[in-house]
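Fold in tokens:
===
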Amino acid sequence: MTSQPPITIQRLTWLRWSCTTAVGLSLWCAGAALAFDAQGHRGARGLAPENTIAGFEQALAIGVSTLELDVVLSANGVPVVSHDTAPNPDITRDASHQWLKSRGRPFNTLSLDEIASFDVGRINPGSRYARDFASQRPVDGERIPTLAAVFKRVRTLRADHTRFNIELKHNPNRPHESPEPAEFVRAVLEVIQQHGMASRTTIQSFDWHLLREVHRVAPDMPLSHLSAQRERFDTLRSGVWTDGLKLASFEDAPSMVAAAGGKLWSPHFQDLSQPVLTRARALNLRVIPWTVNEIPDMGRLIDWGVDGIITDYPDRLRTVMQRRGMELPPAMELPNDKQAEGVPPPVREPAPFGVAPDLR
């Protein structure tokens, strides 16, 4: 490793606050001080089926401080955990155990029973997705969980240290596949409050209109402004994703986030440089990039001083953190019955390198 001059690492910490929302929810948001936030992306997508109970259990067994997950609404307005606004044929089998041939009907047109009929316990072996995530171990029979079911399972496992980073999935270019922002936000906030998870939750989205709606309803709910400046996915240029704001009107991405009222910025990790991070610090932004899967990238970003990392491979991130003498989140022991059911055991060593992260 090439020697480098010492870097002064500055990380912002969670603050304490109390909040009362406009929907009559009384919340005490007591964020614990976190020097570094190790987030398991969709649970532990590189190792276990994404956005499933088995995947979240795998992440907890490895040891993360935050479970990152995605939420959409069913036809009857129940928050369910899915990265896509419609069933993804790369990971979805129907009730007859056949792989979907194409994207299914949007989740906001499907009942809970219809959603529960899908098996999302493995990747279609003929897909590029399977090649990209060759280390993922299948858990056949895994279903798309409701957000409430995730909260209940975390409670049952007594993972009281674990936070949640919940992404509201809404594509402004496909508005018919998502509920209206007010309905979406209210449904998610109600489940968060019903399960007593307000003090442990951040809400994130690429669609900053939704974040504005969250702030209107629950002004003290922590928010994360997601962004991407990729060739095939640029959310900052047109204003469609960013509630009318356009990058051309600002000095840089951090100033754009600050103008939107952001306190936490989550950019694609390749959009981040040390000067850009320094600029974000000057604007008092916390910075947690996504989705960082290779050990050299993790090490570089940690040395720059990011506040956390979102990764498909929390085992690799723990290795990097341990090498630097950083405090590690607790690794949980799964109940014996879960091991017997085939949930992958915790991975203690880094998985093979070379997995390219896809766009969120």
In short: Residues 36-340 form a domain with the TIM Barrel fold (CATH 3.20.20.190). The first helix runs from residue 53 to 62. The chain has a mean pLDDT of 88. The chain has one domain: 36-340.
